[in-house]
């Protein structure tokens, strides 16, 4: 622990350093000093092959439906989508300026992705998104569940691009303690701590496993056979649950105990009966060796278990687009039919060795991701049919932490990654949590699309975070800094639009805001700039992915 | 999709399903069960419908034995004292003296049973009428009411403040669930503080300028995009408008309990819960549909009697003043009041003199809204051995009763986003209360 006076001293020094650094670097972001361009990346050969197949699937489906595709999205727009999906915030002005200088031989999307994959924010943010599906958002059982450790572990796996099948096997078959083997938190989050059924809850684990890794909502048949189709029987669920029966809580953490059995009461029966572990389909893929959880883990992640690859594709697609390819994200029919792209993406993902970054690169490069969410001609706007067929990019709500992250990011010119100063990080952590709570977090139902709410609007119109980040503050806020240090109104407005909306202003917008800034000096100018920032943050465009 | 807690539901799927429901009843398909038909008719006869609901939520599990269902002088009372109420032969736990005097103003339900013994699950069950179901969040009763009833008005003026409010909700605020986040309760912490974020951060002139520049941005955003984007999906600009109406509404005063006379504030008790109940009356008076006020701290696994008494001292003045206040304002007939909890507590004391969770026969109060009062429904046994109380009432039956009383077709099946139709409530109205 640092003592209090010392902490204040450190903070003051930091503020001074930030201020001096900021003014020196400022001219760079505003356009007059040379910033280094981003390193270039190209569409690699294996990616090119897969991409041709994916694109063909979509273009032929559009042809069948007699739909035209929306025009190509701007490179800036694609970069914004990727930053929001993979780092939880809009790109910083500095990153955008470097992106704009990209050498012409580089592929913009692939170069931007290479840039993001190197960023610690990518590991951290995506780990949190994964954790929602794998362990949920709740605090979980007391002492034996450490969500933070789990997220850190996932972040480490993402940092080295661990093959996705290996990662999932680790979770399902994990053994040890929740602190030294953080992947065991996948099991301990489901532990019942009191009562007759103490220990890991097979029902919860089976439900989580089938949803997160197979994209099948098998838990719907926990109490009775499938009412809405005859695919699943009650046995299917309980036989899957039986794979978790031998997971046991011991002094040395999660262990397998071979004598434990799973019992269930079937509908219409009075007595509980012992249930043998059986997989619900493709039994030939299950190895006979290993512990029950080992066997299950290998069966789920088997290269020929298409459900596993489809579930990964669907979730990754949903993270990138804000909407899954098959909705809901964890209820993909086992025998189809599938939307175009799904089966090819799944196959290519398996072929890549379950390479997660490859999958992200492939989806990001695909035609649907590269399209605009608007038409080229305002008289003929995008139609619902186009959007439904992925012939136009869907407009979806941003998640609360993406909105908060973007507000905080936009107040500074440089990316707030791990190199960002400690006071920036501390402030961001506290502010984000408070904001997310008030904005309304959907928890595990993160792809349930909901309209904007009044508390959300009040929070963005009048709330503390926006007020502090757009108010007059020459040290901390870009709104004041662009007002004072840009060489022209146009430069200030462009910087604001790029920092907040990742696009340049339209001629009409430029004229409008030039009028509001021109001839104003000192405080009135800073206020006019703050008002512009406020308007940008309160626009639909800021809170929605497009 | 184009619905909000401030407006009636006009969605097309909703209308067509309603139409189907009506026409099927007309053609004799018998969609409605005889019981609900009978109840619906009965309710119509009794005149005007209540307009609002107040839920007082006893978080943690109030002990039926120390509150509304004591068994004086039995072994399971474990020495807890009981007091007489205004109903002959009916007792409450000590500490509820003011409420006991008003026992003829509500009905006492002593036989609520459920299958949920875990706080989170049982609270979900209590607030939504459904047990937790993976992949789906059911709406809380206040969300259903705001969704189903038309946008409220007060003396002909639309209500500009949120119409579904949770006060001091803690971990479990009322949620819109499959009806959408716009039906989430507006959350309010101790009403002693002003409502957050309703004050514009700049003067009027700058605010006007900000809104004006917003219009420029919205115009470029709309260009070439889906024509119904605002109306059917984002509701962004309409939410800003409603937020602005709320910010400038004099109805915001309803939140400000400091406006109430000192004597009234004191009568509710100088507690957070007391202030919440006072705010609830003021909000219902301003046209709000549903207010939920939570009193946390009932989870007495250790020293049950002492813990329960402490809770009752907060509940008693607030609840009694709430009923009296509603009556004085002529709002009691218009407002259903429900005092509920997630489960009761075990008849046995544990080794630390606490009582543990007991979902096999616990108590709630229901009154106001033209419901029949002064009745005791159900009975638990004096030995505490039975898990099967007489005249059992299920948690979902409370929901069906309230919705039915409000004139809402509780059996109506809503088509959820996962493509599964779910009834607003799958309980049955309690005939004795209607």
Compact description:
The complex is a heterodimer of chains A (546) and B (434). Chain A has 546 residues and is mainly alpha-helical.
SSE arrangement:
The complex is a heterodimer of chains A (546) and B (434).
Chain A: H1 4-30, H2 45-64, H3 75-87, H4 93-100, H5 108-117, H6 120-135, H7 147-159, H8 164-173, H9 185-188, E1 191-192, E2 199-200, H10 202-214, H11 234-241, E3 247-250, E4 253-256, E5 262-264, E6 273-275, H12 292-301, H13 306-321, H14 342-351, H15 356-365, H16 367-370, H17 384-388, E7 396-397, H18 400-410, H19 422-439, H20 454-462, H21 464-470, H22 478-485, H23 489-501, H24 507-517, H25 522-537, H26 540-543, E8 544-545
Antiparallel strand pairs in A: 1-2, 3-4, 5-6, 7-8
Helix pairs in contact in A: 3-5, 5-15, 6-7, 8-12, 10-11, 10-13, 13-14, 13-15, 18-19, 20-21, 22-23, 22-25, 23-24, 23-25
Chain B: H1 12-26, H2 34-45, E1 52-59, E2 82-84, E3 91-93, H3 97-101, E4 106-113, H4 119-128, H5 141-148, E5 153-154, E6 157-158, E7 164-167, E8 186-188, H6 204-222, H7 229-234, H8 236-247, H9 262-267, H10 272-285, E9 290-296, H11 304-328, E10 335-341, E11 344-345, E12 357-358, E13 360-368, E14 376-377, E15 393-394, H12 395-405, E16 413-415, E17 421-423
Parallel strand pairs in B: 1-9, 1-10, 4-14, 4-15, 7-8, 7-9
Antiparallel strand pairs in B: 2-3, 4-13, 5-6, 10-13, 11-12, 16-17
Helix pairs in contact in B: 10-11
Structure overview:
The complex is a heterodimer of chains A (546) and B (434). Helix content of chain A is 54%, strand content 4%. Chain A has helices spanning 4-30, 45-64, 75-87, 93-100, 108-117, 120-135, 147-159, 164-173, 185-188, 202-214, 234-241, 292-301, 306-321, 342-351, 356-365, 367-370, 384-388, 400-410, 422-439, 454-462, 464-470, 478-485, 489-501, 507-517, 522-537, 540-543, and strands at residues 191-192, 199-200, 247-250, 253-256, 262-264, 273-275, 396-397, 544-545. In chain A, α13 (306-321) crosses α14 (342-351) and α23 packs parallel to α25. Chain B is α/β, with parallel strands linked by helices and 434 residues long. Chain B has twelve helices and 17 strands. In chain B, the strands form five sheets. In chain B, strands 1, 4, 7, 8, 9, 10, 13, 14 and 15 form a nine-stranded mixed sheet that branches. In chain B, a hairpin with a 5-residue loop joins β16 and β17 (421-423). The model of chain B is unreliable at 1-46 (pLDDT under 50). Chains A and B meet through α20, α24, α25 and α26 of A and α6, α7 and α8 of B.
